[in-house]
């Protein structure tokens, strides 16, 4: 492997930080640029003025079966809180265990019918009706998905909801992965440590980078932002905007508040505008009694539509790509074809790949793209 002398990485989210660190370790001088004034991308967290550790862009829990990714992160994480995520769902005004398990069904007085159903080619409504029946679907999925995606379950492919599978047991854990946790010091500190290398320089709060930001570059340029922004859809080409479902995050600090009955409450009822309520303090899982804050900071998430120029998008964050939208899929493929014409360009991450990645998948993607660069191979 021959490391390039220098490289540029656009985006200091978990994907960009991973790539920068691997290249720097191999001897490449890496310039990391981000238009935000902080590192971490969507994984960013901080301690708020009330002493609560808060996630800036909604609750993030690390979970994976990819132990190679855990080994990589262990170099920078310090210690993990071996936190297992728990969720309750509020439906028809009552709280239930979620994902659906025997306790949920017992509380609702309904049998737990969790059938084996292949989601391939099915819409989410058909899949869930076959999988758990119309009652549980209506309680836990219909309203929530309508608020989250802005369309009924019939218009969403089954794989979107199949990620959270109902169970025939009483295990309350949200994820079942081999490794689950949250960095004790927070994700931002972990990523700062990743960028802490003599070969890495960091430029935060830069102007958004696009295809014309550099006259000509022979060094590899890794781009982890949205490809429509890179190719500057408004002026340079006419491919069009990539759709994302946006989220508005609202933080509320309440002195003397009691803990929520679970870290997150999924709000399934249509007449509740937000989709999720999070008790930030529980995420970092300080053992009971060790530190109880005087106040708790809660996060409320509300999902909004993504039409360009829609005033309701102000103050919101592009969170979820909508890769099943045929138009968006085609536009992304067209941008990828443009990207392939630039021999120095590598794209990676949830925005550039236009895919929902969990953090472990984003790190794995970063490790793979960094290896490509070190092998001097182009991205196909
Ligand atoms: C609400 C929510 C909750 C989530 N919860 C979890 C969870 O519990 N567990 C889990 O594993 N995953 C979770 N995820 C997924 C996780 O956030 C992603 O896997 C991760 O953030 C992907 O990192 P990234 O670096 O690819 O992208 P990002 O984090 O978006 O980073 C991209 C960076 O690039 C910068 N940038 C973009 N364009 C430009 C430009 N043109 N010029 C300069 N800078 C630019 C941005 O400012 C940003 O800092 C969640 C996602 C969301 C939306």
Notes on the protein architecture:
The chain has 380 residues and is of the alpha/beta class. Among the domains are: 6-84 and 184-240 and 323-374, NAD(P)-binding Rossmann-like Domain (Rossmann fold); 87-161, no CATH class. The chain is 28% helix and 22% strand. It has a seven-stranded mixed sheet with strand order 8-7-13-14-15-12-16. Strands 10-2-1-11-17 form a five-stranded parallel sheet, covered by helices on one side. Strands 5-9-6 form a three-stranded antiparallel sheet, with helices on one face. The model has no long low-confidence stretch (mean pLDDT 91). Bound molecules: flavin-adenine dinucleotide.
* Biggest sheet, spatial arrangement of strands: 8-7-13-14-15-12-16
Give the DSSP E fraction (strand runs of 2 or more residues).
Answer: 15-25%
Please give the alpha-carbon distance between the first and last residues: 19 Å
Most strands sheet? 7 strands, mixed
User: Residue-averaged pLDDT, rounded?
Assistant: 91
């Amino acid at each position: 492997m021959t490391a390039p002398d220098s490289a540029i990485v656009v985006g200091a989210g978990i994907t960009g930080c991973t790539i920068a660190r691997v290249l720097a370790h191999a001897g490449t001088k890496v310039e990391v640029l981000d238009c935000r004034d902080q590192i971490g991308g969507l994984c960013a967290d901080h301690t708020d003025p009330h002493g609560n550790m808060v996630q800036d862009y909604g609750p993030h829990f690390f979970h994976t079966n990819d132990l190679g990714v855990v080994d990589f992160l262990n170099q920078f994480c310090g210690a993990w809180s071996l936190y297992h995520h728990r969720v309750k769902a509020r439906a028809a005004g009552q709280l239930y265990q979620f994902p659906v398990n025997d306790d949920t069904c017992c509380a609702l007085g309904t049998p737990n019918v969790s059938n084996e159903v292949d989601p391939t080619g099915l819409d989410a409504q058909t899949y869930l009706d076959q999988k758990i029946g119309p009652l549980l679907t209506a309680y836990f999925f219909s309203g929530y998905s309508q608020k989250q995606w802005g369309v009924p379950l019939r218009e969403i492919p089954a794989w979107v909801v199949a990620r959270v599978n109902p169970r025939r047991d009483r295990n309350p854990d949200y994820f079942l992965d081999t490794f689950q946790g949250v960095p004790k010091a927070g994700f931002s500190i972990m990523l700062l440590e990743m960028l802490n290398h003599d070969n890495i320089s960091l430029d935060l709060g830069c102007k958004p980078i696009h295809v014309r930001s550099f006259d000509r570059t022979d060094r590899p340029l890794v781009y982890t932002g949205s490809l429509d922004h890179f190719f500057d859809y408004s002026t340079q080409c006419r491919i069009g905007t990539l759709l994302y479902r946006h989220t508005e995050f609202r933080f509320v600090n309440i002195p003397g508040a009691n803990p929520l009955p679970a870290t997150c409450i999924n709000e399934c009822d249509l007449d509740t505008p937000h989709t999720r309520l999070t008790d930030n303090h529980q995420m970092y899982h300080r053992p009971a009694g060790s530190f109880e804050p005087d106040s708790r900071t809660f996060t409320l998430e509300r999902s909004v539509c993504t039409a360009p120029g829609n005033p309701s998008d102000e103050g919101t964050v592009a969170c979820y790509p909508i890769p099943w939208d045929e138009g968006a899929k085609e536009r992304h493929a067209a941008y990828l074809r443009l990207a392939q014409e630039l021999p120095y360009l590598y794209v990676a991450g949830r925005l550039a790949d236009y895919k929902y990645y969990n953090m472990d998948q984003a790190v794995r993607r970063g490790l793979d793209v960094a290896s490509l660069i070190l092998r001097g191979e182009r991205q196909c």
